[in-house]
Amino acid sequence: MANLKAFKYSDLIEAGCDEAGRGCLSGPVVAASVVLPKDFMHPMLNDSKKLTEKKREILEPYIRENAISCQVGIVFESEIDKINILNASFLAMHRSLSKHQVSIDHILVDGNRFHSYNDIPHTCIVGGDSKMMSIAAASILAKNYRDRWMRKLHEKYDIYGWDRNKGYPTKEHRLAILNYGASPYHRMTFSLLPNNGQVRMFS
Description:
Number of strands: 5
CATH architecture of the largest domain: 2-Layer Sandwich
Order of helices and strands: EEHEHHEEHHH
CATH topology of the largest domain: Nucleotidyltransferase, domain 5
Oligomer: single chain
Helix content: 25-40%
CATH superfamily of the largest domain: Ribonuclease H-like superfamily/Ribonuclease H
Structural class: alpha/beta
């Protein structure tokens, strides 16, 4: 197992938060928050970006079955375009946190910024998904949820290769936008084409 810490404050009920899809051109931003028990352990647990899809799929049911609580929050493309991706990431985390039935004493957030949630103390940890178990678990749940979402969207718009690129700005994805236009699931405030090229809508 990676050298992950179980808790920052072992005497508090902590929720680890992370998001997936912040740098994508299409699809929602998804956040997860996870409260782990004191004895949680799995040898494969790590930052989702360091794991294969197969390992993430193995870990997800283990996390869901053994966590005290785990929840997911989503912010869709139209909301992202209205409030910007940073605020959307915070909102997705807030939405996930709002679903917990347990009382949370402290929030651990991957990254260096966060908007306070319900006056609960929080700690921002840069690279937290490779340092804290709860954040790593949240990164896996958020990544898996979003990947499944993008595979479903791919069934509607298979020209963009979302089953492979998951909405990230690959050459394949941008070429499809250039050739076919943007779908209703694209973030129109993002630079969909290089040099802010003019984008038409899919028809």
